Amino acid sequence: MSDNSFGRLLRVTTFGESHGPAIGCVIDGCPPGLALAPEDFRADLDRRATGKTRHTSQRHEADEVEILSGVFEGRTTGTPIGLLVRNTDARSKDYAGIAAQFRPGHADYTYLQKYGHRDPRGGGRSSARETTMRVAAGVVAKKWLAERHGVQVRACVSQVAHLVPRGFDWTAVEANPFFWPDASMVAELEAFMDALRKSGDSAGARVHVQALGVPPGWGEPVYGKLDAEIAAAMMSINAVKGVEIGAGFASVTQKGSEHRDLMSPAGFASNHAGGVLGGISSGQDIEVSVAFKPTSSLRLPGATVDTSGQPVEVITTGRHDPCVGLRAPPICEAMLALVLMDQALRHRAQCGDVDPVFPRIPGKHEQDV
Amino acid sequence: MSDNSFGRLLRVTTFGESHGPAIGCVIDGCPPGLALAPEDFRADLDRRATGKTRHTSQRHEADEVEILSGVFEGRTTGTPIGLLVRNTDARSKDYAGIAAQFRPGHADYTYLQKYGHRDPRGGGRSSARETTMRVAAGVVAKKWLAERHGVQVRACVSQVAHLVPRGFDWTAVEANPFFWPDASMVAELEAFMDALRKSGDSAGARVHVQALGVPPGWGEPVYGKLDAEIAAAMMSINAVKGVEIGAGFASVTQKGSEHRDLMSPAGFASNHAGGVLGGISSGQDIEVSVAFKPTSSLRLPGATVDTSGQPVEVITTGRHDPCVGLRAPPICEAMLALVLMDQALRHRAQCGDVDPVFPRIPGKHEQDV
Amino acid sequence: MSDNSFGRLLRVTTFGESHGPAIGCVIDGCPPGLALAPEDFRADLDRRATGKTRHTSQRHEADEVEILSGVFEGRTTGTPIGLLVRNTDARSKDYAGIAAQFRPGHADYTYLQKYGHRDPRGGGRSSARETTMRVAAGVVAKKWLAERHGVQVRACVSQVAHLVPRGFDWTAVEANPFFWPDASMVAELEAFMDALRKSGDSAGARVHVQALGVPPGWGEPVYGKLDAEIAAAMMSINAVKGVEIGAGFASVTQKGSEHRDLMSPAGFASNHAGGVLGGISSGQDIEVSVAFKPTSSLRLPGATVDTSGQPVEVITTGRHDPCVGLRAPPICEAMLALVLMDQALRHRAQCGDVDPVFPRIPGKHEQDV
Amino acid sequence: MSDNSFGRLLRVTTFGESHGPAIGCVIDGCPPGLALAPEDFRADLDRRATGKTRHTSQRHEADEVEILSGVFEGRTTGTPIGLLVRNTDARSKDYAGIAAQFRPGHADYTYLQKYGHRDPRGGGRSSARETTMRVAAGVVAKKWLAERHGVQVRACVSQVAHLVPRGFDWTAVEANPFFWPDASMVAELEAFMDALRKSGDSAGARVHVQALGVPPGWGEPVYGKLDAEIAAAMMSINAVKGVEIGAGFASVTQKGSEHRDLMSPAGFASNHAGGVLGGISSGQDIEVSVAFKPTSSLRLPGATVDTSGQPVEVITTGRHDPCVGLRAPPICEAMLALVLMDQALRHRAQCGDVDPVFPRIPGKHEQDV
């Protein structure tokens, strides 16, 4: 078995290596009738792309999406949507020196242990290049969620190393290269990133992801819980080491009387649950926080072994991000959108004719404060 | 769609409500030849059970497991293993008063929004009673992992509210009712729990889960990553709000040079990755940390609405745990064991004849320190 | 992997051996709100049961269905429906003599080759006893199809050995023990079966299954085609060796101008397609024909080998059906109903908001002739 | 949900329309280390291709396979294998006249009823063009089965309309354009096909498919039976209306004493079961027979309706095969190979360490006669 597909009813299968001829995906299960054109992918692929500022890897990929199937006269037909992106700026020679070495903190060692044979160029299949197709698939899910259900998915970077936003304004997020919600700190971040890059080291980050407008009822107890699938979706992204829903680890030190979100006809009084109760959406905003480790691709030398078991010192000379979390918000949004669309379809399958007779309780939004 | 099955090749399907006649599960895909008897389930079900001390719910269930199929002359046959546990101590009248009310922090509201019709007795399907069958299924997985691969899975409580262990000794864990790794703090915990119970409030907890002896190579990139499936498995447990692998959220403030686990022929120098690189086990210990929220079932009154949308005050009078995390270690172990056994079978399917020619690098264990 | 589950969105998992303590199933994904009671299972289980006439096996099972979960106050809740049937008339001693022999035409040899360890009592898991739970699950699917979509599923025996109906009347089918559509031939069939039973030999049969009222649009191209899933469903029944949709093998000698079903606003002119075009229901009746081999459990001695590889002669002394096809109609109906309900839910998931604007073309029914 | 993937552990996902820019597939789960090059696809794609003789459609496609991923230095890596074939000879204008008409016997009506929006060019997704990718994926499965298990898969046409082979010789099959096993009848077939083509009508056919060398033990009872999955695989091919395993429908008129395949240490005495007992391979040859309907694309006018519900007469003017069954053998082989490889991997997952201690019984081959 291998597992390059994501989702149950909206099923995305990706393929492709970092330095192979192309990457691509097949999106199976998208309802018919959704307007879709190649230019729809532009914005989010640019948000994820490297080489846009000096703070990311300097690989410059065109990321042109070709729609191979599933769309006729500008609308989806219900058949599988094939998407293809040619790799245009791979520099495999950067990796020639390390093909026989296991880079610490990378998947080199585990891929070779598992498969016995691997493509070492640029990390091959384990490269974050694969997330390009997640973002592309996420574009389709976001469009459908917005048009069919009025759901909006968004994300920001909520921590870089020790830096946390002092203020919080969603409108600031897309106006700086760090997806940072506090405009007053952008210069500080730039200085931090410049110093980091010069040091040859890397930094971790935290990303906050949110879905607004999710109706109550999405999520499949007990092993297809909405939060369980969100956790898997986020943890499947390269470099992720932790996932929280709502209060997350802070709930360990909360009292039950503090954590439980009281309700009244006017709405929920708080949202410590992060929009999920018993694995099912409550109608409140879905709130997710994700930890990204610092990349292990460093110019600083590190001890490792080679494929013959001898000790060596490795220096990673490819083009890399000093803080991979800085490009992660569109990826996290895409994964959340894919989970939500999949769950929406699953809910429609089983409960499509349930007629809710009791009132819906409004959610508590941050902006209500 | 509904989703009461877990796993791909080792597939566990559970059924049953908290106050229905019985709960049960079907384990499909277990290899033939594994020794299995009803008494194998005793130890772990007792570790999970309520009513053993004053610090847990006072529901007393016999938890007698009947093996209905899949075992002949004491060994599994490869056919589905049906397990049944009759509910013997349900007190549904405790819930009569709240059938028409949505308990805050519970799944009452979301189940009714989703399905339009629900079993309110004791939380019905959303009750933690369901985890009994996870533990039962986990017993099978633990046995197979130990006998076939020498893998050991274990867990402890690593935080209750603000209390953290001052020392750490795995041998202490099973010798106190709190799965606590510091024997010197047991009296302190008892006092804390007594006060908590009297207050009518509840507390959160953190559970640490570990697998020793996992060989390198288990895990299916990219959407069936070992850590992604662990995250889903843990988040699917009632009351869980966060999951970390290895350094987890601490990796946000680590430098890359600090986080990456250097390697030498003598072994890995650290285990910040938590035993997973690129979604595949590295041969180091698998390290997972899980956040449990404080239960929302409190004797303290709370504001909510009823099914006709009117504001009401609710008091939960059923038998509940003041700290659900205290019974969670066997559940977390079971879920980790189920993920690992499933991944082991998947790995064998695709890579069963891969012949690793390079050396295996020893893991860094805590006990090495 | 093992594969004891059927269906994608309506997922039925069965367990249990012929002579184990019980057989059972879990039905996952049934929409909430469907009325369901233990007595709903009576009629179809009796239609499938042995021991009702001298023409079937003389095993007398009570076949009492216990609903363990998923139903509250007489209606399904959307959570998994657990069903249990205790085995009450197993006579394992009948098999003591043949535990170490491979009965020709049976699964004895293949189960042992696959699993290395098996339950030989009454065929264990490979026994047709398992089809009891298919029929039980089919009852739920039939109810939902009838109530939600007005779909009716029915079956008859359309051939026994060389005997074929000379006339055809659906109302005759349930009025004789052979599900035979020609009342005038019942005496002839009884004589044939009596002679067959006395001879110690067995006979094959053909079953015709039909679904009326299926709307156009059900079926998932290209690998989840309605006819492909029907073929798998039928072929998964014990003793089935062939499946036809519509004209079936007769289409080999048809001309295209004869086979294609012409259309007019008044309706389809014929139904050689059997209600499926391109894997999707056309709105015509679904027509399926299934071949059942003669059972291999005979009183006539036959050459085989034992588990040590020595030649032996085997005589099957258990209670067996001289023509297993005679009890197959309710099983075939159940499988067709399960496929249709599953496809209905899948169709609703992807195309639940498609608004057909062109006219629906009426189907051609046999009774129109 | 949509369903454009095939297999459980070897998972093939196809995409693409007949007249879109390209067709392609992703093969996920192939073990690492298998030698694979673009030229491996040539032979089977040519065997399936149109335009090679006057007896098939005159569409001339290059069918050049580009390997996009999953292969490094000539061997599979265990990551998904992406294959792409550009469409080079689509003539969509042929279909301009019938875009608003439902061709009888085609999927036009059902696709539009299901999806509300469709690509009508050349049949779009419902075209047999999709089978190109099945054949490509089948090449991988055939290679693996041959190299790893010595299994050979082959097929021939065993009937065209009323014509059946008078002799049978496998070596003749690949030496004529009809995959016909009787060289003495080739002239007769050519004359038949010429007359058929001139008449504007079409003919049905029967294809026989066979796997030699399959070891005992492959197949997953009870819903993943080897024969059940073969039935689904064959019925998922365009134009198939019936599937038989072994004796198939002939078993209806067989006696049990005739049908059951007796065994001795020297081997099975016959193979009426077609190599499958209880859903598991017996070690005998797998024998499958498949009915192909006559294509409904005719130059002869036929009555139908248009998308506004009005009666019209339709003539299909595109390039079509007068007997689609004549190109089906490589497709049937591919589907059988994909089922077998998938089952081989599943068997290895669950029973990889079963050690058969009893003797294997040789199969009965036709050539033994």
TrEMBL record, chains A, B, C, D:
Q: Which Gene Ontology cellular-component terms appear in the entry? A: cytosol
Which reactions are catalysed by this chain?
5-O-(1-carboxyvinyl)-3-phosphoshikimate = chorismate + phosphate
Please provide an example of a Pfam family that matches this protein in its UniProt record: Chorismate_synt
- The protein's annotated pathway: Metabolic intermediate biosynthesis; chorismate biosynthesis; chorismate from D-erythrose 4-phosphate and phosphoenolpyruvate: step 7/7
Cofactor(s) for this UniProt protein: FMNH2
Question: Has UniProt tagged this entry with the keyword 4Fe-4S?
Answer: no
Q: Which UniProt keywords apply?
A: Amino-acid biosynthesis, Aromatic amino acid biosynthesis, FAD, Flavoprotein, FMN, Lyase, NADP
Positions contributing to FMN binding: R125, S126, S127, N238, A239, G278, K293, P294, T295, S296, S297, R319
- An annotated GO BP: aromatic amino acid family biosynthetic process
Q: What is its EC number?
A: 4.2.3.5
Q: Quaternary structure per UniProt? A: Homotetramer.
Task: Provide the family line.
Answer: Belongs to the chorismate synthase family.
Q: What is this protein called?
A: Chorismate synthase
Q: Which organism is it from?
A: Arenimonas malthae CC-JY-1
Lineage, highest ranks first: Bacteria, Pseudomonadati, Pseudomonadota, Gammaproteobacteria, Lysobacterales
